[in-house]
From TrEMBL:
It comes from the Eukaryota. Keywords: Leucine-rich repeat, Membrane, Repeat, Transmembrane, Transmembrane helix. Residues 26-64 form the Leucine-rich repeat-containing N-terminal plant-type domain. It holds the Pfam family LRRNT_2. It comes from Capsicum annuum. This is Leucine-rich repeat-containing N-terminal plant-type domain-containing protein. The keyword Transmembrane applies. The keyword Repeat applies. The chain crosses the membrane at residues 6-25. The lineage of its organism: Eukaryota, Viridiplantae, Streptophyta, Embryophyta, Tracheophyta.
Amino acid sequence: MVLNKIFYFQFFTLLYLFTITFALTEEATALLKWKATFKNRNNFLLALWTSSSNACSDWYGVTCFNGSVA
Protein backbone atom coordinates (compact mmCIF):
# COMPACT_ATOMS: atom_id res chain seq x y z
CA MET A 1 0.00 0.00 0.00
CA VAL A 2 2.78 2.42 0.89
CA LEU A 3 4.61 1.56 -2.34
CA ASN A 4 1.48 2.39 -4.32
CA LYS A 5 1.28 5.82 -2.71
CA ILE A 6 4.95 6.48 -3.43
CA PHE A 7 4.52 5.32 -7.01
CA TYR A 8 1.50 7.56 -7.57
CA PHE A 9 3.25 10.52 -6.00
CA GLN A 10 6.29 10.06 -8.24
CA PHE A 11 4.17 9.44 -11.31
CA PHE A 12 2.06 12.57 -10.89
CA THR A 13 5.08 14.68 -9.98
CA LEU A 14 6.83 13.64 -13.19
CA LEU A 15 3.64 14.16 -15.19
CA TYR A 16 3.27 17.67 -13.76
CA LEU A 17 6.89 18.56 -14.56
CA PHE A 18 6.55 17.19 -18.08
CA THR A 19 3.39 19.23 -18.62
CA ILE A 20 5.11 22.44 -17.50
CA THR A 21 8.10 21.75 -19.73
CA PHE A 22 5.90 20.95 -22.71
CA ALA A 23 3.79 24.09 -22.21
CA LEU A 24 6.90 26.23 -21.98
CA THR A 25 8.27 24.65 -25.14
CA GLU A 26 5.02 25.41 -26.97
CA GLU A 27 5.09 29.01 -25.77
CA ALA A 28 8.73 29.46 -26.75
CA THR A 29 8.03 27.99 -30.18
CA ALA A 30 5.14 30.41 -30.64
CA LEU A 31 7.37 33.34 -29.69
CA LEU A 32 10.07 32.17 -32.11
CA LYS A 33 7.48 31.98 -34.90
CA TRP A 34 6.34 35.49 -34.02
CA LYS A 35 9.97 36.71 -34.06
CA ALA A 36 10.36 35.22 -37.56
CA THR A 37 7.72 37.68 -38.80
CA PHE A 38 9.78 40.72 -37.74
CA LYS A 39 11.37 42.78 -40.50
CA ASN A 40 14.55 43.23 -38.45
CA ARG A 41 15.25 39.75 -37.04
CA ASN A 42 18.85 40.64 -36.21
CA ASN A 43 17.93 43.04 -33.43
CA PHE A 44 20.58 42.71 -30.71
CA LEU A 45 17.91 42.61 -27.98
CA LEU A 46 16.44 39.47 -29.53
CA ALA A 47 19.75 37.75 -30.30
CA LEU A 48 19.26 35.23 -27.48
CA TRP A 49 15.78 34.32 -28.67
CA THR A 50 16.86 30.93 -30.01
CA SER A 51 15.55 27.42 -29.60
CA SER A 52 18.71 26.46 -27.72
CA SER A 53 18.37 29.12 -25.02
CA ASN A 54 16.02 29.26 -22.03
CA ALA A 55 13.03 31.51 -22.70
CA CYS A 56 12.48 32.29 -19.02
CA SER A 57 16.04 33.20 -18.07
CA ASP A 58 17.79 34.22 -21.29
CA TRP A 59 15.27 35.97 -23.50
CA TYR A 60 15.15 39.76 -23.26
CA GLY A 61 11.64 41.04 -22.59
CA VAL A 62 10.19 37.65 -21.64
CA THR A 63 8.94 37.06 -18.12
CA CYS A 64 7.80 33.74 -16.70
CA PHE A 65 5.40 33.08 -13.86
CA ASN A 66 4.91 29.60 -12.39
CA GLY A 67 6.82 28.02 -15.25
CA SER A 68 4.81 29.71 -17.96
CA VAL A 69 5.62 32.67 -20.16
CA ALA A 70 3.68 35.66 -18.89
